[in-house]
Write a structure and sequence with these properties.
Elements lengths: L30 E7 L3 E8 L5 E9 L7 E8 L14 E6 L3 E6 L4 E5 L6 E3 L10 E7 L2 E7 L12 E7 L5 E6 L15 E9 L4 E8 L13 E6 L3 E7 L11
Length: about 260
Amino acid sequence: RFPALDPSRRPREWSSTRQIVAVEDLPGVDYLIIPMMTKTSVLSLGISHTTSPCKIALIESSLTGNAPPRVINKAEFTSTFISYRGLGLKCIRGVCRTDDEVFVATSEKGIVRLPIDGSPATWITTESGLLSDYTHGIAMLNGRLIVASGDLGSDGYVLGKEMYLQSLNLEDGTHEVIVSTRRKDRQSPFDDGPLFEVNSLTPDPERDRLLMMIQVQHRPGKSGIDSNTGLWEYSPKTGFRQLAHGFMHFRDGFAD
């Protein structure tokens, strides 16, 4: 927690609690992850990853009345991470949503779009504008989908040759490259540099910015934490600004 970034936030006491959904009541679901509030319900992802393909169910749980949870959309895809040390949850790298859709970043297949109205799921991949199908973080910022992507190793960590941060306009299909470790004409602190991973990608639409925890891999011949590792702010208007430095690398299988 960084009170200086938003001093208005204070701990909130809960007046009551109740269970609205249990994984035991959902056949074929191993985990429930990423709760997302709407005005009248909670959306969550049900994940089945013990065998390939990895299956995703978008589940709606009502906050009013006693209606049971229901699956409103689903998708599936193959992933090599399902069989790696039992860490199948690594096949899901991040989630964000609009009023109409939920976007799920996957480890190897790009991003799946799950319409909340139950329309068929569709995919965003390198064929439709992604710089890499190996995604590891997404966020929605003022109508644009921000995607962190790049090569991932067999254990789900960054071990590839390039990393990207890009902005996608979902209405017209255009995109902007915010960061590329392959770009020689440096336009960001991470261009033409070592590989990095975005451990969290949090939108702040009121300030038109993203807050990112970035872990930069060690440079050959250098010890200690890279100077660019830490908490960063990105704004489409003002670019990058480092807010704090020196965080160690934490990973729980998600990048949200």
